[in-house]
Design goal:
3 domains; three-stranded antiparallel sheet; 9 helices; alpha+beta
């Protein structure tokens, strides 16, 4: 059995266009009819788009028939623009590699300059495809407003919106009273991937630190070390 590809080989925009074509054909149609509707040939390029639309959870395919997913219908029938944005973001984050990237860098600046190398080394993206996948992620993140003008990946807010979570780690050393500081372990429920997040709150700080791999503990340990110093604990 071949290795499962966990990233799309076409853009989020192309996947949306394909789903829209299926929608215009009644919500279910053959691949041939969909390709004709889009003005495409029934070949490798078109099937890359079909595969990507499946990875974005916009269409399903069985026996050559393409069918819209419940998520696509929810996006189409969203009551408000805010609801639509959230559903589009959910669709965009459906491919596992895109979701893992988002979870790792949410609330932080996306390392655009090294992203293609990171995709190859850490996310098992084919070397010949890494440049395209980088482009698809950045373009889709901007379209869904998950990536802001400062190249930060914004967070889902409990108020059904997006926000950038500010981290004031450097302010801890300037605080004289940190008796109210706390570390609260939580589990993020946005994705199907378990992730431990430490929520540290106190005077002048409200920060979440996501733990997905061993290197992430360095940030957490540095944060705790600063807090310990203010309590004059031996470290």
């Amino acid at each position: 059995m071949g290795k499962r590809v966990e990233y799309p080989n076409a853009s989020f925009k192309s996947a949306q266009e394909l789903a829209s074509a299926v929608d215009s054909l009644g919500g279910t149609c053959s691949a041939e009819l969909c390709a004709e509707k889009m003005g495409n040939k029934l070949g490798g390029g078109f099937f890359y788009i079909v595969s990507s639309a499946q990875k974005f959870n916009l269409v399903s395919q069985k026996s050559g028939q393409l069918t819209l997913t419940p998520l696509y219908r929810d996006i189409k029938l969203a009551y408000t623009e805010e609801e639509r944005k959230l559903l589009l973001a959910r669709s965009f984050l459906s491919p596992p590699v895109f979701l893992r990237l988002y979870e790792r860098f949410k609330g932080k600046e996306l390392p655009i300059g090294m992203l293609d190398k990171m995709l190859i080394k850490e996310y098992e993206v084919d070397e010949n495809a890494a440049g395209r996948i980088k482009k698809y992620f950045i373009e889709g993140a901007k379209t869904t407003e998950l990536l802001n003008a400062q190249n930060q990946l914004v967070l889902f807010d409990n108020g059904n919106g997006f926000k950038v979570e500010e981290s004031n780690t450097d302010d801890i050393a300037n605080q004289k009273d940190i008796s109210e500081a706390s570390v609260e372990p939580t589990i993020i429920s946005l994705s199907d991937l378990d992730e431990f997040t430490f929520h540290i709150t106190g005077p002048g700080i409200n920060s979440r630190i996501a733990i997905r791999e061993e290197e992430d503990f360095i940030i957490l340990e540095a944060m705790i070390k600063k807090i310990k110093k203010k309590f004059d604990f031996s470290i």
